[in-house]
């Protein structure tokens, strides 16, 4: 089997478990890594703005958080337990479950709360600066 690497068999042996990681297997799975990356790229294009970032120094040393110009932030929890989710609208997360807290080993992108800069929560409707 080629698992999506061409029409014929693979030139190197591939274990059967590779099949669940193929493009064909992930294409329609909204919780797949492929879907996460495609959604991240859609948002990244929409949120593009001037370069720069501002670190959010958290009290929790297990959290890495930064803000980008244009009214959004990225928050990653590297800790062993959940942490409070910052204020804002979650637009992308590496955990497909609805989040009230940020679980361990999870990243979320958030639009700043209303008042900072209004944006649509749909990347196809969100504007971006040139």
Question: What can you tell me about this protein's structure?
Answer:
With 130 residues, this protein is an alpha+beta fold. It folds into 2 domains: 32 residues, no CATH class; 67 residues, Golgi alpha-mannosidase II (Immunoglobulin-like, Sandwich), CATH 2.60.40. The chain is 15% helix and 23% strand. The strands form 2 sheets. Strands 1-2-3-7-5 form a 5-stranded antiparallel sheet, with helices on one face. A two-stranded antiparallel sheet has the order 4-6. Strand 1 and strand 2 form a beta hairpin. It is elongated. The C terminus is likely disordered.
| Distance separating the two termini | 45 Å
CATH classification class of the largest domain: Mainly Beta
Q: Give the rounded overall mean pLDDT.
A: 80
Radius of gyration, whole Å: 18 Å
| Corresponding CATH superfamily of the largest domain | Golgi alpha-mannosidase II
Apparent shape? elongated
By CATH, the topology of the largest domain is Immunoglobulin-like
**Strand-residue proportion:** 15-25%
What's the main sheet like?
Answer: 5 strands, antiparallel
Strand order of the largest sheet: 1-2-3-7-5
Helix content: 10-25%
Q: Structural class, please?
A: alpha+beta
* Secondary-structure element series: HHEEEEEEE
Number of strands: 7
User: Structurally, how many domains make up the residues?
Assistant: 2
Determine the number of helices (DSSP H or I, runs of at least 4 residues).
Answer: 2
**CATH architecture group name of the largest domain:** Sandwich
Low-confidence stretches: 126-130
């Amino acid at each position: 089997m080629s698992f999506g690497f061409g029409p014929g068999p693979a030139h190197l042996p591939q274990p059967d478990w590779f099949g669940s990681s193929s493009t064909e297997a992930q294409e329609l799975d909204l919780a797949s890594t492929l879907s996460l990356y495609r959604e991240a790229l859609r948002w990244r294009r929409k949120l593009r703005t001037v370069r720069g970032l501002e670190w959010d120094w958290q009290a929790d040393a297990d959290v890495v958080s930064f803000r980008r110009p244009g009214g959004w932030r990225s928050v990653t929890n590297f800790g062993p337990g959940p942490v409070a989710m910052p204020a804002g609208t979650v637009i992308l997360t590496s955990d497909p479950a609805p989040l009230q807290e940020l679980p361990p080993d999870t990243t979320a992108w958030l639009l700043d709360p209303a008042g900072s800069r209004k944006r649509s929560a749909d990347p196809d409707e969100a504007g971006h600066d040139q």
